Amino acid sequence: MHPLSLSRAPRAVLLALVGLLALPACSDDGDDRPDAGQPDSGTRPDAGAGDAGGDAGTSDDGGTEGDGGTVAWPQDFSCEGKEQTTLTFNPGQEQELQDAVNDLAECTTIELGAGTFQFDNAITIRANGITIQGAGKGTQGEATGGEASTVLDFSNAAANTNGLDVVSKLFTVSDLAVWNAKKDGMRIESSSNVNIQRVRTEWAAENLESNGKYGIYPVKSTYVLVEDCEAYNAADAGIYVGQTQHTIVRRNVAKKNVAGIEIENTKFAHVSHNVAQDNTTGLVVFDLPGNPIRGTDVYIAHNTITGNNRPNFASVEASSSTVSQVPAGTGTFILASRRVELEHNTWGDNNTVDIAILSGLAIESDPIQWAAGFFNYPSQDIFIHDNTFTGGSGRMVDNGTPDPERRPLGALVGAVYQYGAAAHGVTGVEHVLWDGIDPAPRDESLANPINICFTRNTLPEGTQASVVDFDLQAVGGHLAAGPTPENVAAAWGETRRYAQDAEPYNCAGFTPALTLR
């Protein structure tokens, strides 16, 4: 991610605004939030059956099986008819393993015994048709492999090295844990037919900006499967699929990261049955400027995205990403994305907002910077239906600790809603916040210009408004003129709220429909 540029509301104005709005506001000291049903970290979510977004098993040919039958992913490498070798290593044979990896023949399976392997450098794979298989991923917090788990410990590895560092065609890794990698736990780049199954990536300490940035990190790849994995304590994203075409991310658990699960500049993503809890932000979909892959067709179903209120611990100096500027309590944000369908998910207890829909111009206001992706800054066609919102969200933006310097957008939203609570009794951000930027310049004659559809969702009892057009450009314009009470009131007046099933957001999706279901 890239640094956030909130040019329409200068940070000096926000600093003054936050002080100005120290007004008596409506508060709710009691904890009347519904129980979101948070499973234990190692619990696999119920995969369900029979829905359009149901489980999609892995076929023997590297493809996927959906409810409609087998859909085989093509392969540009195969081990069929080639010599295949199996190498076995146990703890204490780390040097032998590294020597073998440095001279690895294609179509080799590496079996790792139970216990703990100690490494002082990355495990680097540069051959095709490689399988790495351990004895089990263990459980959260397990730093030492047991009788049925394999832990790859990189605590003493060289600085700025990954755990597993892979460039490969037809690569599979399963049943192991990567512990305390110095950089990324598992970086898989420029690869195809990648299967990551039952892997745990973890850093020992919580909330440290010196932790590695990414847990599971396939990037610039094709045909990627991430399933039944766990990721904890990453200083950027626990599970990240970026700049990739065709991915399935399912039945994973991401907790205690800055971002739980990220889908970035990716085409054709099926993201289902995951748990994203206790992160700064839970499950996000976005494009970034300067990347030629224009992300599209993302299906998000049967995920639990609740209680993502962890304080943001991403490094500002060491990170080039906006993740350091995401306010705590963001369930999902969709940025510069298109053709995104969200159904049968659960959101709740996310202090800032359940879902934010943002323009790419909110992070990079120069459209020319988006030229590589065919000017892919607009968000478009977001269909949110048949989900469950359990409540308790939007009541304390950025956990009540706004920081205009580090998280300016969150500070602006929090300040405006603080006024709304004091002056209008609006006690929280609605379930869906749209920044109102796209299309730019905005055509006011279009009631729903980017086709956000919000229908048939289960909402907390008594919900009046579910969607807000925040109109960031107009709000920021008023505040830039000075943080006076009159300007704050005028900024609030630019925001517009809509109940579910009210026009213009009661639309029925987009066409053609997604084929990822």
Largest sheet: 20 strands, parallel
Estimate nothing, just give the exact number of structural domains. 2
Query: What coarse outline follows from CA principal-axis ratios?
Result: elongated
Beta content: 25-35%
Please mark out the parts with pLDDT under 50 across 5 or more consecutive residues, or reply none.
1-70
What is the straight-line distance between the termini?
Answer: 28 Å
SS content category:
mainly beta
Q: What is the count of DSSP helices, taking H or I runs of 4+ residues?
A: 5
* Helical amount: 10-25%
Keywords: Signal
Pfam family, one: Beta_helix
Region (Disordered): 25-76
InterPro entries: Beta_helix, PbH1, Pectin_lyas_fold, Pectin_lyase_fold/virulence, SO_2930-like_dom
Q: Helices, strands, pairings?
A:
Blueprint: H1 11-20, E1 57-58, E2 64-66, E3 69-71, E4 85-89, H2 94-102, E5 108-112, E6 115-118, E7 123-125, E8 131-133, E9 150-153, E10 164-166, E11 169-179, E12 186-189, E13 192-202, E14 214-219, E15 222-227, E16 230-232, E17 237-242, E18 245-250, E19 253-255, E20 259-264, E21 267-272, E22 275-277, E23 281-286, E24 296-301, E25 304-306, E26 330-335, E27 338-343, E28 346-348, E29 353-358, E30 380-385, E31 388-389, H3 408-424, E32 432-434, E33 452-455, E34 467-469, H4 472-480, H5 485-493, E35 496-498
